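Bug #77: duplicate submission created two jobs. Keeping one. Sequence:
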Amino acid sequence: MTESLGEFEQIVLLTVLQLGKSSYGPEIARYLEREAGRRVSRGALYSTLGRLEMKGLLRWTLEEPGPDRGGHARRRFEATERGVAALRSQRAVLERLWAGLEGVLEAR
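Kept job's structure:
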């Protein structure tokens, strides 16, 4: 059985996949604001990233400090295979639930 994802966990994980090698906390937050219209606090974002890591759906690597970062290292996030499987499963469920509702949803 694949892991269940909350709505915010799902969009954070999708954002990590969209950003690829540029998946750093600030970039994730900017992408969510731009593409999903969601402003997210640093605390909410990092607590969600931590929860996804604890579930085994995400991992991070610490990059060496660079001059552009004032000597500070940063974490780059990436989805695990288990995370991708959870997204596939979630998409399949949503597609089943959306099926046949086009007319109903367009009429309202």
